[in-house]
Amino acid sequence: MAAPPQSKGRPALSAQSTAASLAPFHDWWAERHRNGHFRVERLAFRDLDSWSFEPGTGNLAHASGRFFTIEGLQVRENGLDTWSQPIINQPEIGILGIVVKEFDGVLHCLMQAKMEPGNINTLQLSPTVQATRSNYTQVHRGMSTRYLEHFTGPGRGRVLVDVLQSEQGAWFWRKRNRNMVVLVTGEVPVHEDYCWLSLSQIRQLHHVDNLVNMDARTVLACLSGLLPEEAPPPAADAFRDALLRSCRYREDGNGARHTSGEILSWFTEAKTRCDWTARLTPLADVSGWARDDEEIADAHQRHFRIIAIGVEAGTREVQRWTQPLLLPRGEGRAVFLVRPFDGVLHVLVHARQQYGLMDLVEMAPTVLLPPGAGVTAVRERWLRGALASGKGTVRYDQVLSEEGGRFYNALTRYQIIEVGEEYATDPPPDYCWMTVRQLSALLRHGHYLTIEARSLLACLHSLY
Amino acid sequence: MAAPPQSKGRPALSAQSTAASLAPFHDWWAERHRNGHFRVERLAFRDLDSWSFEPGTGNLAHASGRFFTIEGLQVRENGLDTWSQPIINQPEIGILGIVVKEFDGVLHCLMQAKMEPGNINTLQLSPTVQATRSNYTQVHRGMSTRYLEHFTGPGRGRVLVDVLQSEQGAWFWRKRNRNMVVLVTGEVPVHEDYCWLSLSQIRQLHHVDNLVNMDARTVLACLSGLLPEEAPPPAADAFRDALLRSCRYREDGNGARHTSGEILSWFTEAKTRCDWTARLTPLADVSGWARDDEEIADAHQRHFRIIAIGVEAGTREVQRWTQPLLLPRGEGRAVFLVRPFDGVLHVLVHARQQYGLMDLVEMAPTVLLPPGAGVTAVRERWLRGALASGKGTVRYDQVLSEEGGRFYNALTRYQIIEVGEEYATDPPPDYCWMTVRQLSALLRHGHYLTIEARSLLACLHSLY
User: Fold this and answer.
1) Closest by alpha carbon to A85, among A359, A260, A280?
2) Helix, coil or strand: residue A279
3) How many CB atoms lie within 10 A of CB B430?
4) Is B271 in the A-facing interface, judged by CB distances under 8 Å?
5) Mean pLDDT score across all residues of chain B
6) B158-175 pLDDT, tens per residue?
């Protein structure tokens, strides 16, 4: 077994993010792959252990009453039931936490090589702690959560980020996780599954498909607004200059197209346009979806399926468990369109209604296509045009994974496309041009940016 | 009919808030009372027009599917159903809006003399616009909403406040209203039910029982954080000096006991301590409550009742309607304990769980007693002691009304009590000392302060 790439808790990696500086990371990563043992198999629902469909409601639940349930969502418009679907209900609030520490004046994050059953490649780069409340209060009766004391203990370090943020509004019922970053100063023993990485190293890793996991991306996005951006690199081009200005300017009216007051009012207005209400309903009452021995699926085979899996995992100790997962049909797509206004990069944000969001609407990518949908699913012609190849400058284009603990191989193509100076100067009412700094500032609070928008924000910072 | 106390849209009242300066207001107010006609009578449920109990669910609903419904709330803890109760479900988002305008450099609010069936005194001072979405989209088929164009029209003035804020978490299911303030510059014709009042005049009126209504209080609280506080009055005492500093200091660490980051983290932490979930359930499934011809009440007669009323109202045109209302048993009590830390007044805020709140926890008064509960209902001895007479200095003590459109004679005794310098320097985890400025800043966003805390914040500004 190779030693982790640090000795006595210090990173062996250089803080400079050249490709060469990441060589020790890749060695460690390959070693983690070799070291881990992980096997996932599809099961029939009847082979789930401690999970069963409740009589009456038909909800799929764990015998303990904890973890999560698969229930139904019912949407109502103008007094009429319209859309219904299965939905994951996980009311408990978990922790997604990154421990950070300065080494030689450079902030480093303690990142984890973590296996999840739904990951396409088993192992992804994850926050220091990624634990549901059931996890860390040990309903699992498994191992205790490593490094948890840095987030919950009385002697924890300085809390830089601590905010509840939403997850996929199409698949989860009002789910939130606690996004945390804690700055420590003392010695932190580094377990072999963990590694110190500087922010610029992590930014480089954002350019690898399916490596930085969803939970890491959301926490890093929340952190990004708090950090002073470094001086611009010497060979800065116009795009990076505009991005830098967009990240830096703190004050309203200083290069931003809208004041923060205008943005908040625009967002409030968007919520009042929601004419629907959504509520939980028994899974048995969901119409247009059917259950057989192995999956719950919609009759038209357009949406996701709920499946059951068995997992065998471990290094020295072997853990086995079974659980339901959500399996999307194909790959999603999330795009931020960006362009400069007077030399300051702006992001075109969409106030998007989603039935599973606690507060009806959040700020979402300019375009968010559900898995399997093609560009033809974009109804707005002015948007569809910008997605056509050759129309804009593609600044970021990677396939990244959604949460592997609840979704099976859920992949999204994340893109940042720069459009021309004349594009959508006055967009329709559900859209708003905002600076990166304005988006980051909103992440001190919950209920503003969707999980996909937070992922894209982390990606945008990787272009700096 | 007397002319309203202004000519050509200008306030006849002096902006100085001496008792004499309010004489024209009181004349106008008395005239509004004489002019209005309002009769409310209790009805049996079967005499409600277009309202009925749905077969199956037993929910009390309007035939149009709009307005609101009386449904059930079911709380679940650790997999077990615990508490259930009736609850008002009103998913539509209404507007509570105040038009403001400068006259001779002094900001004035266009306030309304508005009748509500549940008001103990029929008429209370209300925002310019106070309309449910059903109101202003005219599901009522009644009159159109006066001054609505200042809040929704394309040519509206400068939006100063625009935020969704919660209402009573004990009685409403996740209800929010859109709190708005719009600054206009053009001529505004003043209808006889409306009156321009300066902020200092309104502050004086906060010292009259049951005059400034709940909807006005929440909007004024949201506005308070945006306004620069005037110079301190010449005969300022230590309390007002400390209050002034508490309102003014904008920066973290400048006299505030906690940074805004610490406050947000404290609040997030409080939410993660919620071990319950709440959901809507059919009213027929609520246990421990029974319905007879005239009311829905709990068996122990400890909580509120749901009743039915008929209303006849109008000046020239007569309107008649029927509706359900919530009738509390007795008077509630809401108290902010305040004290200076190093000469800066701090408010002791309680992170309070309420089953009807969308986000589980909001920042609430230090003490919030439900209607009819005595001080003995306060379990914490350190708090109970501070409420005993003679223990603190009572800075504010008025009985104010909760929303008269949904509640019948719902009165709350609002108090601000100054405690000594040694009091609760390090309070238990659910409590936090905050400055007025810090509370006001949070009101740019929803889900932070409860409706009762916002009322108290408006009252606190009236002491300035």
Assistant:
1) A280
2) strand
3) 17
4) yes
5) 91
6) 999 999 999 999 999 999
Give residue-wise pLDDT tens across range A206-218.
Answer: 999 999 999 999 9
**pLDDT tens figures, B137-155:** 655 555 688 999 999 977 8
Kind of pairing, strands A411-418 and A332-341?
parallel
Q: Which amino acid is at B313?
A: A
Mean pLDDT of B121-126: 96
A and B: number of Cβ contacts within 8 A: 72
Per-residue DSSP letter, B229: P
> In this predicted model, which residue has the larger pLDDT, B315 or B215?
B215
Q: Is A105 on the interface with B (CB under 8 A)?
A: no
- Which residue is listed with tokens 């919620």? B274
Of B6 and B229, the structure prediction assigns the larger pLDDT to: B229
In chain A, what are the domain boundaries? 238-275+329-461
Whether B91 and chain A come into contact, CB under 8 Å, resolves to yes
**Six-digit token string for B387:** 């409420």
CA–CA distance, A269 with A353 (Å, rounded to integer): 12
Which residue in A has a C-alpha nearest to residue B442's C-alpha?
A: A445
Q: B263 or B318, which is more confident?
A: B263
User: With 50 as the cut, is the pLDDT of residue B1 above it?
Assistant: no
pTM above 0.90, yes or no: yes
DSSP state of A232: P
Least confident of A247-256, A328-337, A434-443: A247-256
Mutate to test the interface with A, among B152, B264, B361, B363 (most CBs of A within 10 A): B264
Q: Are strands B344-353 and B332-341 parallel, antiparallel or unpaired?
A: antiparallel
Give the CA count within 13 Å in the CB-facing half-sphere of A395: 25
CATH topology of domain A238-275+329-461: Nucleoside Triphosphate Pyrophosphohydrolase (3.90.79)
Q: What is the DSSP string of B424-442?
A: TSS--TTEEEE-HHHHHHH
Sign of torsion, CA A141 A145 A151 A152?
positive
Is there a contact between A264 and B163 if contact means CB atoms under 8 Å apart? yes
* Residues of B in Cβ contact (< 8 Å) with A64: 79
| Predicted local distance difference test score (pLDDT) of residue B139 | 54
The answer to whether B375 and B366 have CB atoms below 8 angstroms apart is no
The count of C-alpha atoms lying within 13 angstroms of the C-alpha of A272, restricted to the half-sphere facing its C-beta, is 28
ipTM value, please give it: 0.92
Q: Does A374 touch chain B (CB under 8 A)?
A: no
Interface of A with B in 196-235 (CB under 8 A): none
The CA-atom distances, in angstroms, between B57 and each of A99, A139, A282, B72 are 49, 35, 14, 9
Question: Is A445's Cβ below 8 Å from some Cβ in B?
Answer: yes
Question: Cα(B258)–Cα(B330) distance, rounded to whole angstroms?
Answer: 37
Pull the structure tokens for residue A257.
């197209």
Q: State what percent of residues in chain B have pLDDT above 90.
A: 78
Token pair 């004990």 in the structure block, residue: B170
Q: How many CB atoms lie within 10 A of CB B250?
A: 13
pLDDT of res. A37? 86
| Reported confidence tier of residue A18, pLDDT bands at 50, 70, 90 | low
pLDDT of A219: 98
**Tell me, what's the pLDDT at B143?**
65
Tell me which of B11 and B232 has the higher pLDDT. Answer: B11
Which residue bears the tokens 């309607």?
Answer: B321
Smallest CA-to-CA distance from A323 within A402, A404, A400 is with A404
> What is the structure's pLDDT at B27?
96
Distances in whole angstroms, Cα of residue B385 to Cα of each of A181, B382, B412, B419, B425: 39, 6, 20, 11, 15
Strand B332-341 and strand B367-369: the pairing is antiparallel
From the list B91, B272, B358, the residue facing A359 with the nearest CB is B358
Is the CB of B93 less than 8 angstroms away from the CB of A269?
no
User: What residues of chain A lie within 8 A of the CB of B164, using their CB?
Assistant: 268, 271, 359
Chain A nearest C-alpha distance from B37 (Å): 33
